[in-house]
Amino acid sequence: MRERSAFLFRWILPLAQMVLCAALLWPLWPELGQQIHVSLRAYGIVPRSIEQSDGTTGNSTPIVPDITSPEWRRKLRQKEERERIVAVLNGLGGIPEVAYAMVSPAHAVWVPNGMYTWIWLDISWPVLGMFFWFFAGRGIEALLSARKRLLAPRIRWWEIVLALVMLAYGGGLAVAMVAGGELFETPLRRTFVVIGLMWFSLGVSVVSAGWWQRRLRRAASKVKFS
Length: 226
Description:
mainly alpha
């Protein structure tokens, strides 16, 4: 059995999800950019605006939206749906922040100064989620290689543990959405079901690749000592 790298899904999946998240959050980029600027200014990385003689910063007066208008509510709902899709797509990336919230005295996720929590989650979860997308891609590569009796890339025991986390997350998400009854009819819940089944399938691919590689190694050892 030779060892050879398969198609580089380990890089394609993380990059593809980042492009998808950027597309979903594209209408929010002005707000995201403003929050990043405010946070950098809070840490002194970006200089503060020069104050005028009247004590103002020279910025124009912000426009206050009419929160009672149907148009504003529609845009708000669309914005929240986009953010929820990004969050669910990279829900595994939120594990470190949830773990931090559990042990922190305030029982809250860490958020940079001057930044809203939901803005920080929009930015951080896709980045942290790349770790799981990377190993999911490795699992696909390993499974495709194992079908050709190749051991590359090698799946290790801790990757199987990550795969079980993917299985639990994806399966739990899909079941929770389907169990919602008539609420399952909403497009957002159907999207969540698809995401859950996707993560479940990715977890299965990693576990299957590990099982196939174990069989191939056993077969190789029997041939070697026969």
